[in-house]
Amino acid sequence: MQKNLWKMEKEQRRLILRATPILFLLVLPFFCLAFDFFWGNRIPVDRWMNYFSSTSQTSFNKTLGEQEFIKFHLRRLVRGEDRRNLDETGFACDRAVHSIVCVSDKPVRIDTTRNVTVYIPSDQALEEKETVIRPYAKQEDELKVISPVRMLQYINTTVPPACQYEHKVPAVIFSSGSTGNVFHEMNEIIIPLFITTKQFQSRVVLILEDYKPSFMTKYGKVLSKLSAYEVINPAANQSVHCFPGSVVGLKYHDNLALNSSDIPGGYAMPDFRHFLRQAYGLKFTHVSQITKPRLMLLSRTNTRRFLNEEEMISLMKEIGFQVIVIRRSKVVSDLNKFSQLINSCNVLVGAHGAGLTNEIFLPSGAVMIQVELIGTEWASNTYYGDTAHAMGVRYLRYKIEPEESSLVKLYGRNHSVITDQGSVYKNGGYRAARTIYLDQQNVRVNLVRFRETLVEALSIVTDWKGK
Ligand SMILES: *[C@@H]1O[C@H](CO)[C@@H](O)[C@H](O)[C@H]1NC(C)=O
Ligand SMILES: *[C@@H]1O[C@H](CO)[C@@H](O)[C@H](O)[C@H]1NC(C)=O
Ligand SMILES: *[C@@H]1O[C@H](CO)[C@@H](O)[C@H](O)[C@H]1NC(C)=O
Ligand SMILES: *[C@@H]1O[C@H](CO)[C@@H](O)[C@H](O)[C@H]1NC(C)=O
Ligand SMILES: *[C@@H]1O[C@H](CO)[C@@H](O)[C@H](O)[C@H]1NC(C)=O
Ligand SMILES: *[C@@H]1O[C@H](CO)[C@@H](O)[C@H](O)[C@H]1NC(C)=O
């Protein structure tokens, strides 16, 4: 009996014990309200709502949340051995075939007063280590115009200079030193910048070395969509900045390409095209949204010229296209307007050359016609043909006959320049071959053959009607 009573008491005690926190939680808001009532607005409503969240295990510590976010996304930029290095030392570089990207997930200080220097704390019993890279996506290119960035893993805490500006998000350092050619700008800066920074959801500060106002005019919309913060020009803002982490250099995948399996993982060409449409406010997603056949002809005025351009334009009009002719001018460098103009066309025509990079702004299902000159087959396919496919753009190749090339007049029909292009590259070297095929060659397009390609393009872009 006694034992039973004791048992009951124990049961009740346990119940009461269990109920206490619940009762407490139920009473707390009234207590807070009363507190608020008697002592005025000393506890704001959102504060006492926090009492509940802070008692639960899953409470969101905003500081920690932000730190975890930064660490998680910085880690995505390295893999395998490099990631282990990053975890152990707070610093690691991804060295791939083309690109080098150095990541630090520790609080860094970036000194821009002379050459840009990143100070990275090293708490290991290691020696001080210095790494210098030129932050450009294709390391095999001419890098003289890209200013170097020094990264110093220091042990002596008196080494780094004092902070002048505190930033809450990581820094990404890259260069616009090598600009002026739209292919190289897209291939080696804009796409790699997207690959490297998109995952941070605008929570990065961009530090742009070799800052060029013309680059900012052209791509400012891209930069401001990738970062919510003012771009830092180190030459104009010479000071010491503190960041919770840093990235030096941009990740490169392939020619005008994004590989969703490669670092950081998950980004493919459709993502980039979607991003560009948003950045530049492009209206057309798919070619079916454009009702009339509209063709843009990229007219080169220096090298690789169309010698019978007027006849080509007449032919295009005769077939039924509205023709927009673009000659190298202010039109092209005003990318904010030019991207919208390309996007409103369903066919883009040009001789092999950087201008074809603009196919990236075409709506899906549009057609790109490349006039492939003698000796440019590899580059034509690699740079613009293969990449069209990844963009959802139809690629029509117009490969010229030797008779259409001005090189026949220059060298003779039976010269190895015409008959054995491989030997020109092999014996003369890349530069010599380039001079011949890219700089000396113009083309007089065979209108009978070219008509077939244009008619095919027209049928592709008008096929959507009634569907
Ligand atoms: C949140 O986490 C950070 C980092 O661990 C810690 O410094 C801070 O005190 C935490 N804040 C709260 C309110 O718990
Ligand atoms: C800055 O870098 C250049 C190389 O681009 C080098 O010649 C120069 O000595 C460096 N200046 C300082 C102060 O480190
Ligand atoms: C760190 O550097 C300062 C001055 O540069 C020097 O006085 C100090 O002895 C150094 N400390 C160590 C532990 O090396
Ligand atoms: C330098 O950068 C800091 C931080 O982004 C900014 O607050 C400051 O206004 C800049 N100074 C100049 C001269 O641009
Ligand atoms: C994409 O990246 C992965 C991982 O780096 C690689 O194995 C694969 O070959 C790449 N694919 C292409 C088409 O380059
Ligand atoms: C080119 O070679 C072919 C046969 O090899 C010959 O018939 C033709 O006359 C030659 N043309 C010129 C322009 O030398």
Automatic annotation (TrEMBL):
Q: Which GO terms describe its molecular function?
A: pentosyltransferase activity; protein O-acetylglucosaminyltransferase activity
Which compartment or compartments is the protein found in? Golgi apparatus membrane
Query: Superkingdom of this entry's organism?
Result: Eukaryota
Might you report a single GO cellular component term? Golgi membrane
Coiled coil (residue ranges): none
Enzyme Commission number: 2.4.1.255
**Transmembrane parts of this sequence:** 21-40
Keywords in UniProt for this one? Glycoprotein, Glycosyltransferase, Membrane, Transferase, Transmembrane, Transmembrane helix
* Major location category of this protein: Golgi
Taking every annotated instance into account, which residue ranges of this chain make up the domain Glycosyltransferase 61 catalytic?
Answer: 198-369
Topology in membrane: Single-pass type II membrane protein
- Please give the PANTHER family that the UniProt record associates with this protein: GLYCOSYLTRANSFERASE
This protein's name = Protein O-GlcNAc transferase
Kindly list the organism's lineage. Answer: Eukaryota, Viridiplantae, Streptophyta, Embryophyta, Tracheophyta
